[in-house]
Amino acid sequence: MSEAAALDFRQVVERANHSQRIKSVTLGFLTWGAIVAATWLSLFALDNLLNLPSSIRFPFAIIGLVITVGCFMKYAVGALRERRSDELTALLLEEQFGIEDNVLINTLQFEEMGYNDAQKSFINATADAATAGWSHVPLREFLQVGRLTKWAAAFVVLMVLWSAYSAIAPDYLKSAFNRYAFSFADAPPAAASMLVMTPAEDLTIAEYAELDISLDISEFAKGEELVIYPSIKYKEGVGVFDSQSAEGADVKMRPVVGNPNLYQYTFETVRRSFSFRIFVDSTYTRSVQVTVNPAAKIVESTFTVTPPAYVAMPAREQSGPPNPVKCLTATELGVRIKVDKAIESLRWEWPTGTIIFQDAGDRVWN
Question: Quick one: which of 37, 217, 254, 332 could link to 306 by a disulfide (CB 3.0–4.6 Å)?
Answer without folding.
Answer: 332
